[in-house]
Design a protein that fits this description.
Strand order of the largest sheet: 1-5-4-2-3
Number of strands: 5
Order of helices and strands: HEHEHHEHEHEH
Helix content: 40-55%
Strand content: 5-15%
Largest sheet: 5 strands, parallel
Structural class: alpha/beta
Radius of gyration: 16 Å
Number of helices: 7
Distance between the termini: 17 Å
Length: about 180
């Protein structure tokens, strides 16, 4: 059910409507991978919906801006920028704003809410779910293994129905901490 994480440009090439890829990320590798894939997708002109469970839209946008600016991801310590650096960040921010990118940070995302969000943006063909273990899903009531299998099956059904490719990141540490 799990596969190694493809390189961002590979995922864009190999993903097809109805495909669901689950990536089990460790704590050390987790943070930047979903942002890198998001950047690759929108950089390739692909309309992308990014569900950020457990992180705010603002945090995702800041990480994307840091990535594009060549700053270390997660490095949000106060810094004094020169006028030139500030202008560059402002221009990058405007570029990101103009991309076909949709961020959704609602709590307790359900499959129905996910489908509604995808339908609200008919140009979306790529969906990234950051921290799928935080979804309001069968994982919370059916036990870990059975619930996870049911959720993946339901994601596949929705992906086929909506004609989108889904990449979901799962952190086993969070999965277990939430009793799923």
């Amino acid at each position: 059910m799990s596969s190694p994480l493809p390189q961002p440009e590979d995922w864009l090439e190999i993903s097809s409507p109805g495909q669901v890829t689950i990536h089990h990320a460790g704590l050390l590798t987790y943070g930047g991978q979903s942002i890198q894939l998001l950047d690759q997708a929108i950089g390739a002109g692909k309309a992308t919906l990014f569900f950020s469970l457990g992180r705010s839209e603002r945090s995702v946008a800041a990480d994307l801006l840091c990535l594009r600016a060549g700053l270390k991801l997660g490095e949000k310590t106060p810094k004094v920028f020169s006028d030139k650096e500030f202008t560059r960040l402002r221009n990058l921010s405007a570029e990101i704003y103009a991309e076909r990118l949709y961020l959704d940070d609602q709590d307790n995302l359900t499959l129905d809410a996910m489908e509604k969000a995808i339908r609200a943006h008919p140009d979306v063909r790529f969906v990234i779910i950051d921290s799928m273990e935080l979804m309001d899903s069968p994982m919370r009531t059916d036990g870990r293994i059975k619930g996870f299998a049911r959720l993946v099956g339901q994601l596949r059904q929705r992906a086929r129905k909506l004609g989108v490719a889904i990449l979901a990141f799962r952190r086993p540490q969070l999965f277990e901490a939430h009793g799923a």
